[in-house]
Write a structure and sequence with these properties.
UDP-N-acetylmuramoyl-L-alanine:D-glutamate ligase, Protein-Tyrosine Phosphatase, Chain A, globular, six-stranded mixed beta sheet, 496 residues, eight-stranded mixed beta sheet, Udp-n-acetylmuramoylalanyl-d-glutamate--2,6- Diaminopimelate Ligase, Chain: A, domain 1, 22% strand, alpha/beta
């Protein structure tokens, strides 16, 4: 694409030769290839304008800067009002505005985003619509899956737009994007023309990045604003909101063409009637604005009922007929690392879950409790990657588990033993050896839990979920929670 064509995006002006051919959009000078347009983004830790010369040495054909930032003489420059918003617009334009050729939903919230995203994508695909999804676990295009190894739930805008373009090229009709508050604040999805904005819940996570819960909620609410002003594609712009969540009152005041609520309360637009929950799933009649359908879920936990209600709202808004909702949800088998059962014939239950905050850990344990005949055992650690309440994680384990093992989870450059002591400080009234142990090596901790399990017990391995690496001070080390669990179970079975 010619530079002049790219420079037509909103808020851009061009200084220099507009006939230059641009072969890619890049914001990281270390990844620049000859022919790229390098976009100098002002970030939290670094200012991309400092790396303009590095990008030019690597072969950048032109640069994009924010406002009147200086650029080397003789270099063609696209000037942007905001380099973050501009990056999204440039990436979208370069890829042919792919979201305008898709029916597109964004799913945000604190918990349940990944499951809801893949649940909705599955229902779309099962109903006969060619579908795609982007999540912290994987990118799916018409049933084909690629692991997300980026370390980001919602990647930067050039990657988002490239995947949307890949979906369009593959004939995808509808897509669902898991959308974080970071991505919304940093404009990673600013150039996505959404048709549906869906919300799971808004807890108290990421308050290292958002100073207050109100600001966190405001960041999430941007998804409704983006959707409401997006290009009209013949799909009524819809917000799907959790009526049972404290965020509902504020989010429901955000202007948008259509608003559907879901929840267990009688006033919700989407509601489960005659709900029955078991250890393996749930059954209910789903009341919707378009009628009723029967749903039989094969994934456990009451929170997956909420996820199913949200996914149903997304799919109805995107055009799935009512009868396709129940059938699609019935065939959904879950998401890797989200209350994922590990079954090798042992006489105790083992689950893997991504729960890596105090609230998520408490929720997962509370869901497993009614279906645990004997002891509920959990292995978990606190990650160094965010502000997760370490003592709070200890309190959650002490309150909801019968026995727990504190271990390591992405310590980065911190001392794992010190992190474990922080977790331990919140447990209060529990005795080491009797109620809990500290086993720093995670592999050993998993084996210890499996060794301790008796018939009827339930073991939850929390924190790593789908992730394929352990982040330490020396870098990313390969890790596979399911493989470790299976290995430990096989050893236990062989020894018995």
């Amino acid at each position: 694409m010619k530079l002049a064509e790219l420079a037509r995006v909103p808020g851009a002006t061009l200084d220099g030769d507009g006939e230059i051919e641009i072969t890619g959009i890049e914001y990281d000078s270390r990844r620049v290839k000859p022919g790229d347009l390098f976009v100098a983004v002002t970030g939290i830790r670094a200012d991309g304008h400092v790396f303009i010369q590095d990008a030019l040495v690597a072969g950048a054909a032109a640069v994009a800067v924010q406002g009147d930032a200086p650029a080397p003489a003789g270099v063609s420059v696209v000037r942007l009002q905001s380099s973050r918003t501009g990056l999204a617009e440039l990436a979208s334009e370069f890829n042919g505005r792919p979201s305008r050729r898709l029916r597109l939903a964004g799913v945000t919230g604190t918990d349940g985003k990944t499951t809801t995203t893949h649940m909705a994508e599955h229902v779309l695909q099962a109903s006969g619509l060619v579908a795609g999804a982007m999540s912290s676990v994987a990118y799916r295009v018409s049933g084909s899956e690629t692991d997300n190894v980026s370390g980001q739930t919602t990647t930067e805008s050039p990657q988002v737009q490239a995947w949307l373009r890949r979906m369009v090229d593959a004939g995808v009709e509808c897509a669902v994007i898991e959308t974080t508050s970071h991505a919304l604040v940093q404009e990673r999805v600013a150039a996505c023309d959404f048709d549906v904005a869906a919300f799971t819940n808004v807890g108290h996570d990421h308050l290292d990045y958002h100073p207050t819960w109100e600001e966190y909620l405001e960041a999430k609410a941007k998804l409704i604003d983006i959707t409401a002003r997006a290009v009209d594609k013949g799909v009524e712009k819809t917000a799907v909101l959790n009526r049972d969540d404290p965020s509902y009152e504020r989010l429901s005041r955000r202007p948008i063409s259509r608003r559907w609520s879901y929840g267990l309360t009688s006033g919700a637009d989407l509601q489960p009637l005659d709900l029955g929950v078991t250890g393996s799933g749930s059954q209910f009649r789903l009341k919707t604005p378009l009628g009723e359908t029967y749903v039989s879920l094969r994934v456990p936990a009451r929170f997956n009922v909420y996820n199913a209600l949200c996914a149903a709202g997304v799919c109805l808004a995107l055009g799935v007929p009512l009868e396709g909702i129940g059938a699609g949800l019935a065939s959904f088998e879950g998401v890797r690392g989200r209350l994922e059962r590990v079954e090798l014939g042992q006489d105790f239950q083992v689950f893997i879950d991504f729960a890596h905050s105090a609230g998520a850990l408490a929720s997962a344990l509370a869901e497993l409790r009614p279906f645990t005949r004997e002891r509920l055992i959990v292995v978990f650690g606190a990650t160094a990657r965010s502000d997760h309440d370490r003592p709070g994680m200890g309190r959650s384990a002490a309150q909801f588990a019968d026995f727990f093992i504190i271990t390591t989870d992405d310590p980065l450059s911190e001392d794992p033993a010190e992190i474990a002591r922080d977790v331990q400080s919140g447990i209060g009234g529990k005795s080491p050896g009797l109620d809990y142990e500290i086993v720093i090596d995670r592999r050993s901790a998993i084996r210890r839990a499996i060794e301790l399990a008796k018939p009827g017990d339930c073991v939850l391995l929390a924190g790593k979920g789908h992730e394929r690496s352990m982040l330490t001070g020396s870098g990313a080390e390969p890790w596979d929670e399911r493989a470790e669990a299976e290995s430990a179970i096989r050893e236990r079975l062989a020894a018995s």
